[in-house]
Design goal:
The complex is a heterodimer of chains A (about 1100) and B (about 130).
Chain A: H1 7-17, H2 19-84, H3 87-91, H4 99-110, E1 116-122, E2 128-133, H5 140-148, E3 152-156, E4 163-171, E5 179-187, H6 188-196, E6 204-208, E7 214-218, E8 225-231, H7 237-242, E9 245-251, H8 252-305, H9 320-366, E10 370-375, E11 381-384, H10 386-392, H11 396-401, H12 405-409, H13 415-428, E12 430-438, E13 444-455, E14 461-469, H14 471-496, E15 500-505, E16 513-516, H15 518-524, H16 528-531, H17 547-558, E17 562-569, E18 575-586, E19 592-601, H18 603-624, E20 629-634, E21 639-642, H19 644-650, E22 659-661, H20 662-668, H21 671-685, E23 692-699, E24 705-717, E25 723-732, H22 734-756, E26 760-764, E27 770-773, H23 775-781, H24 785-788, H25 793-801, H26 813-821, E28 834-837, E29 843-851, E30 858-864, H27 866-902, H28 907-940, E31 948-950, H29 952-962, E32 973-975, E33 983-985, H30 987-1003, E34 1012-1019, E35 1025-1032, H31 1040-1045, H32 1065-1075, E36 1079-1085, E37 1089-1097
Parallel strand pairs in A: 32-34
Antiparallel strand pairs in A: 1-2, 1-5, 3-4, 4-5, 6-7, 6-9, 8-9, 10-11, 10-14, 12-13, 13-14, 15-16, 15-19, 17-18, 18-19, 20-21, 20-25, 21-22, 23-24, 24-25, 26-27, 26-30, 28-29, 29-30, 31-33, 34-35, 35-37, 36-37
Chain B: E1 5-9, H1 13-23, E2 29-33, H2 36-46, E3 50-54, H3 63-72, E4 81-85, H4 90-99, E5 103-106, H5 111-130
Parallel strand pairs in B: 1-2, 1-3, 3-4, 4-5
Helix pairs in contact in B: 1-5, 2-3, 3-4
The chains are: A alpha+beta (about 1100), B alpha/beta (about 130).
């Protein structure tokens, strides 16, 4: 900032230089204005109050003192008037009295205070009869009073002591002329001093008459002052005549002094206040401006340092600065993102540009076409592609250094045309010329040069051109012309050739013949017209299986020449051997356009070599067998030749194991197998076997063993028929042997698994015939392996059907099997399909099938689920029965309650309905309780029994005492056997069981009869001691059929509903007793009664 | 015209009473049997207009069998038979259908439902006869 010499300008700079300064100044100015206004107002108010208070003081002083003065004068006047009426005074006028007595009285009356300066009585002529004090002149007013008899009051203005002269007329009663005047003079100075002496202080009192000069003054007024004045108004008009005025004053100097103090205090306060506001405003301004300064600094950093390394502003509070900081942070974040994005884009653009440049460079480098760019003005080279160097045959620098280097290379014959073309380029803007170029190495190339005149971005003219080496093209054009010339000659030569010549057009589909010469017609018997348009293959007739054909096809595909020998057939069908040479002919683009075949009939030659070739071929094949060792055994000499692979087989290096005797073979065979191998060989040599074939181990050089298959045959015999020579092969079959061994092991293992498996298996081979069934299958179905092996799926089904349960749903496994065999996936989650068998015993089988994709075999898997399905059946039967039993009471409850709700019945009928509902509800409750008990006991299997050793007699006694019997029925007769062993039971459960039996005994003997309860003991068949509780009734009894079903759930011996019950009681009894490892015995006779005995094992 | 006769064949006394109370409003003449055999005899003797037949009853004949017998007799074939049963599974309905039942009420049933069924079947009968 520039430093101004001028202080005001510096102040202006300071003011404009910082927002804090401005805020400070403005805030301070504002506070100062407010303070000034406030101070002024206060000052004015204080001033006013001071003045008012002084005025009040004056007012009060005036009123008080006037009152006092008035009262004092009035009183004095009253006294004097009273004096003038006193007898003593009146009598003094009489001439008979001596005035001396009066004088003494007047002197005494005056007193010594000097307030009454004179007191005198004047006679009718105005002469003083008696006078006390000074004065005594007869004034005009005295005479007036004598004349009219009116009292008078007059102000005396003596310079030294002002006073009041009071005149009262005095009359002598009873005398017409005896009258006079009482004169009194009051010294105002003395009076006022007496009155005002205690009025010291600040007030100045002044008494004045009608004139201006003061009569009396108390206090001193040093300078200007404030005044108040008032006339003295007595009650009598007399006082008013005097025209006296009282003035009260106060000095202004005192007031001014107080105001001056006030001014000083205000000034001091104002100074302190402005200092305080200065610092306060400065502090506040700086605090306010602080976040802004931070923002400003950060903004400064953004502009100087860039946005990457910026810190964040602390955001505190939700105020505007906080918002601004937040927004600024956001802005900085966005700026950073944008910056990063920009950087990224620049980088990627740069990379793209680099890549494009590199690509262009590669393209130009790889291109055979030369690209150049010249300055049209001076021919200076601007750019040359690398191909230019190849085309021109010299380094690129050369062209850059010498602008006319290129035209210098142009062959002299073409130079004129080139120069003209260049001129044409400058005139017309384009050029296309073909000319020759003589390279520095002397070779001449044909060049096609195309160029255009362009104007560059800054208006400069530029020549861009492309140079192509067209030497080959030119050469081929020349060659074609030559070829066409010679073609006619060749055509004629072909016509005369002894070999058949045929040309096929490879571009057309089927490669048809387009030319055949007369020799071809002669050899094949076909005319040219007959063969043109057909494929050469027709010559092969049906004989397509020839090695030469594949070779020929390969050669044609690969575009190579080849010579093959084929069996071909003439038009008359006769065979001839055709030595065919085929050459492909390529077009300019390198693709094969035609094939020329030259054929020669070599049938005779062929026939003679065929046999030789065949045997040779076979031999080659034999020895080509890579891993098989080949041996050759000459029997008489015992020599044993082996091929190199034989040595490899035994682990010897090549050649080490060449020839030897047969003993070498034996040496390699372990002793355990040697005899077996030897016997097999000798058997064959004796002619007993067709071929020698033997599999045996062979010891390798390093001692390890391999398994080999050894095969051989005698190939030569002597005249006597004895074997002379034998050849054979030896093959390493170790892997196969081991695999076989393993397979056998697996088979054994699988066999034992399947034999032991509880589930049945049926294997079908790939022809869908039964190959194997396991023992479990035989057990399940009664079908033996021997009888079913070889059966088809249908036949197996037929065999199965004899055993099926006719009442059961169809099994459907044949369809499933066929579906699986057809490749459909077996649905494992489908409803488990079942087969119900009636024989050899009732069984339920579930099945699954699986197709082995690898060998096409099919497996049927059967599982015995008889028990599971039986349990299922029982469960669903129980559920349906339970539902029935629960619904029956519900029918009454619902029906009767609905009737009661809908219709109005008389109370008796309604009560009957309600009783039924109640009865059935109870029944339902019992049913549910018993069902739950049963379920609980079954589910827990006695685990929650609280077993305890106790005597059965106690339990029976408890039960009987808990039994409630109808009034008309006798209590049960109890016979308890003493000395019974204890039992280990859950007392409550056993009591429940006994109670159930006992209540049944009562229920099923409705016509009465005694119910007996007894306890017994016995030794069971197995030798254990048992304790029994026996309950006998003499009631309805049961048929044997009913006895058989008594433990069935919901079975009721009386289904009519006459006897209440749920049908679960006995089931529960049985369940409880059996959970205690006891059992229940029932004997009953229909119509006679029933005995139930609960047996429990003694502890 | 005489009142239509309804025969109730039901082993549970309470249910018989319920049916009787439900239908006993003077329109029908009601008869009861407490098992299959006596029910079958009463059908042949009474020639009722409608038979209400419990399915699960003790004795030689259950409801399905009685129903089949009624439907096998040409003279009785037109008699509507309503089966009352506590078994409400699909197979039970199918068995009822196979036996030729005209209606099937599952216990517990609403009396109103029973009246509806009975009246619907009897109206159909009247309609048939009229035709």
């Amino acid at each position: 900032m520039a430093r101004h010499a001028f202080p005001l300008a510096r102040l202006a700079d300071w003011y404009g230089g910082s927002l804090a300064n401005r805020i400070q100044v403005q805030a301070q100015a504002m506070i100062m204005v407010v303070a000034l206004l406030f101070g002024t107002a206060c000052y004015l108010i204080v001033d006013r109050m001071l003045t008012r208070s002084i005025e009040n003081e004056l007012e009060v002083g005036l009123r008080l003192n006037r009152q006092r003065l008035e009262d004092s004068l009035e009183r004095r006047l009253g006294e004097l008037e009273a004096l003038s009426r006193r007898n003593l005074v009146q009598q003094a006028l009489s001439p008979r009295t001596s005035p001396a007595a009066l004088l003494a009285f007047l002197v005494e009356y005056r007193g010594g205070d000097g307030e009454i300066s004179a007191l005198a009585l004047h006679d009718a002529q105005g002469r003083p009869l008696a006078a006390s004090g000074q004065g005594g002149e007869v004034s005009a007013s005295l005479l007036d009073t004598l004349e009219d008899g009116q009292p008078r009051l007059r102000l005396l203005r003596h310079l030294d002591r002002p006073g009041l002269q009071i005149l009262f007329p005095v009359r002598l009663p009873g005398s017409a002329d005896g009258h006079g005047v009482l004169r009194a003079e009051i010294d105002l100075g003395v009076l006022c001093r007496r009155l005002f002496d205690d009025q010291g202080g600040l007030l100045v009192l002044q008494l004045q008459g009608p004139g201006e000069e003061p009569l009396f003054r108390q206090g001193l007024l040093g300078g200007p002052g404030l005044h108040r004045e008032a006339a003295l108004l007595g009650r009598s008009a007399l006082l008013q005549e005097a025209g006296l005025q009282l003035q009260v004053s106060r000095s202004a100097a005192q007031l001014l002094r107080e105001l001056e103090h006030l001014n000083q205090a205000v000034l001091l306060l104002a100074t302190l206040f402005s200092l305080l506001t200065y610092f306060l405003a400065r502090h506040v301004a700086q605090r306010l401006i602080k976040p802004l300064t931070g923002l400003a600094q950060l903004a400064q950093e953004v502009t100087t340092a860039g946005p990457e390394r910026l810190r964040r502003l602390p955001v505190d509070g939700p105020d505007e600065v906080g918002l601004m900081a937040h927004a600024f942070n956001g802005m900085v974040g966005a700026l950073q993102d944008a910056y990063a994005h920009l950087e990224q884009r620049v980088r990627s653009r740069t990379a793209e540009l680099e890549a494009a440049k590199a690509r262009l460079a590669h393209v130009l480098d790889a291109s055979d076409d030369g690209i150049y760019s010249l300055d049209a003005e001076n021919g200076r080279v601007l750019y040359l592609s690398p191909a230019m160097a190849r085309i021109g045959g010299c380094d690129l620098h050369y062209f850059f250094e010498y602008p006319n280097a290129w035209s210098g290379l142009v062959l002299a014959d073409d130079r004129l045309a080139y120069t003209q073309a260049l001129q044409g380029l400058r005139d017309n803007g384009s050029m296309s010329l073909r000319y020759r170029l003589c390279r520095p190495d002397g070779s001449v190339r044909w060049i096609c040069d195309r160029a255009r005149l362009l104007s560059g971005p800054e208006g400069e003219a530029r020549i861009d051109g492309r140079v192509i080496d067209v030497s080959e093209q030119v050469a081929s054009e020349a060659a074609r012309t030559r070829a066409e010339e010679s073609l006619r000659l060749r055509e004629q030569a072909l016509q005369c050739s002894a070999n058949g010549v045929v040309i096929a057009d490879m571009r057309q589909p089927g490669a048809p013949i387009i030319y055949a010469n007369p020799a071809f017609e002669r050899i094949t018997g076909y005319t040219a017209a007959e063969v043109i348009g057909r494929n050469c293959r027709f010559l092969q007739g049906e004989d397509h299986d020839q090695p030469g054909i594949a070779c020929l096809a390969r050669a044609i595909r690969g575009g190579e020449e080849c010579t093959v020998t084929l069996r071909n057939y003439r038009k008359d069908g006769s065979l001839f051997w055709n030595q065919l040479s085929v050459s492909p002919i390529r077009g300019e683009d390198g693709r094969i356009t035609h094939c020329v075949g030259v054929q020669q009939d070599i049938s005779e030659q062929m026939e003679s070599t065929r046999a030789l070739a065949e045997s040779e071929h076979r031999l080659t094949l034999t020895f080509d067998a890579i891993n098989d060792g080949v041996w050759d055994y000459f029997v008489p000499s015992g020599r044993f030749y082996t091929s190199p692979s034989w040595a490899r087989l035994l682990g010897y290096p090549m050649g080490e194991h060449g020839a030897g005797s047969l003993e070498t073979l034996w040496a390699c065979i372990p002793e355990s197998d040697r005899d077996r191998v030897r016997n097999a060989l000798e058997d064959h040599l004796r002619g007993e076997t067709d071929t020698y074939q033997c599999q045996h181990p062979l010891r390798q050089k390093d001692g390890s063993e391999i398994w080999v298959a050894n095969r051989g045959r005698v190939v030569e015999w002597d005249a006597a028929g004895k074997p002379v020579r034998m050849v054979g092969t030896i093959t390493d079959v170790t892997d196969r042997y081991r695999a076989e061994q393993q397979l056998m092991e697996w088979n054994l293992r699988m066999e034992s698994i399947f034999t032991l498996s509880p589930d049945g298996f049926v294997y079908f081979d790939r022809n869908r015939r039964v190959e194997y069934v396991n023992a479990a299958f035989e057990r399940m179905t009664g079908l033996l392996c021997g009888t079913v092996t070889g059966l088809t799926i249908c036949e197996l089904e037929a065999a199965f059907n004899e055993h099926l349960d006719p009442g059961a749903p169809p099994a459907g496994y044949r369809e499933a099997l066929e579906r699986v065999a057809a490749g459909e996936e077996w649905e494992p989650d489908a409803h488990l399909p079942l087969i119900h068998l009636a024989s050899p015993q009732r069984r339920v089988l579930s099945y699954q099938a699986r197709l082995d994709q690898s060998d096409g075999s099919l497996v049927l898997y059967l599982r015995d689920v008889t028990r599971e399905s039986e349990v299922d059946r029982m469960k669903s039967e129980f559920l349906s029965t339970a539902a029935h039993e629960l619904r029956t009471p519900m029918a009454s409850i619902m029906g009767f309650s609905e009737l009661l709700l809908r219709r109005n019945y008389n109370p008796d009928v309604a009560r009957e309905c309600l009783e039924t509902i109640h009865r059935q509800s109870k029944r339902l409750t019992n049913l549910l309780n018993e069902l739950l008990d049963l379920a609980r006991i079954e589910a827990r299997a006695g685990k929650d029994f609280k077993l305890k050793l106790q005597g059965v007699n106690d339990i029976v006694t408890d039960t009987v005492s808990a039994l409630i019997v109808d009034d008309d029925r006798p209590a049960p007769h109890v016979h308890l056997l003493e000395g019974l062993p204890q039992v280990n039971v859950d007392g409550a459960k056993l009591q429940q069981a006994v109670m159930n039996v006992l209540s049944n005994a009562y229920k099923y003997s409705p016509s009465g009869g005694v119910v007996e309860v007894a306890t017994l003991g016995r030794s069971s068949r197995s030798g254990h001691n048992e304790v029994g509780v026996q309950i006998t009734d003499h009631g309805l009894g049961m048929t044997p059929e009913q006895v058989g079903r008594v433990f069935e759930r919901f079975y009721r011996a009386d289904p009519s509903g006459n006897i209440p019950g749920t049908g679960l009681g006995m089931s529960l009894v049985k369940e409880i007793i059996e959970q205690h490892r006891g059992h229940v015995e029932i004997s009953s006779e229909f119509g006679k009664g029933t005995t139930v005995c609960l047996w429990l094992p003694a502890a | 015209m005489s009142k239509p006769i309804i025969l109730i064949v039901e082993d549970q006394q309470d249910i018989r009473k319920l049916i009787r109370m439900t239908l006993d409003f003077g329109t029908f003449e009601l008869h009861e049997a407490d098992n299959g055999e006596s029910g079958w005899h009463m059908v042949r003797g009474l020639k009722p207009s409608l038979v209400l037949l419990d399915v699960m009853m003790p004795g030689a004949l259950d409801g399905y069998q009685v129903c089949s017998k009624i439907k096998a007799e040409p003279q009785l074939r037109a008699t509507p038979v309503v089966l009352l049963t506590a078994r409400g599974q699909e197979t039970d309905f199918a068995a009822g259908k196979a036996a030729g039942a005209d209606g099937y009420l599952t216990k517990p049933f609403s009396p109103l439902q029973l009246i509806d069924t009975v009246e619907r079947l009897l109206e159909g009968l009247v309609g048939q006869n009229a035709a």
